[in-house]
Amino acid sequence: MLPRISITWMLAACGGDAASDKGGQGDDSAAPDEIIETGGFALAAAVVGPDGAPSPESGLCAAAVDLSGAAWGNPSPAILAEAPVSDDGDVLLEIASVPSGATLGIGILIEACGEEAVMPTLSPIPATAWAWAGPGDTVLGLQAFVYSLADVAALQGELAASGFGGDLATEGFLAGTLVNEQGLALNDCWVRGPAGTASWYDQGEATWVANEGTQDEGGGRYVVPSPPFGSYLGRGAARDFPPFLGAGFPGYAERVDYAPID
Asked: Do 103 and 245 touch, CB atoms closer than 8 A?
């Protein structure tokens, strides 16, 4: 099996620590005038569930996708390469061409090959993880997350019980964790989206609150329902952190984990 190393968006640490210490910019008004093509490399990823453990789901298909269409209103990402997920939960995506002038870059999409059993789930890949790759190269150690329909229903139930009135499956959502170098949850951190986007934070015991920050009891988890395209800032302890530019495709889950810069 392929090595399982998590590639996350790297942001500065925030907030009070639990236990022991527990992006890009772009123009959203028009497509780039000039697209520079690169490619000839492959992405090797392990498919995992929301908790980072190997996904128990079978019959999955993967695609390398260009996320830039979100900037000008496309309802779904553009496909760059496709491949089935192996019985071991690994996938190799061979990309012939990447429009490297794209605003948002690339990601891995996991969805059901046939009968719907999972929510289409996007895992953006930071440019630093693949920009070096050229013909014949393979980017190793990636994780591609997938949310089953049961995962989404459970998350929907917890949020609804906490006062959320929307529908995650229809609207789509951005989700992830804010953790330290050891993978322990960070307290009192936030993910702020454009135009006052509402972010929900797991407080533990299936309880979520809007806009009040992460807690270690909730694993540092956050959810942004119906995320609009735009910048998402990690914040905490009176500090601002580098932004992540989110796609926000309706009907898709998008997974972004925030971890400290070394």
From this structure: yes
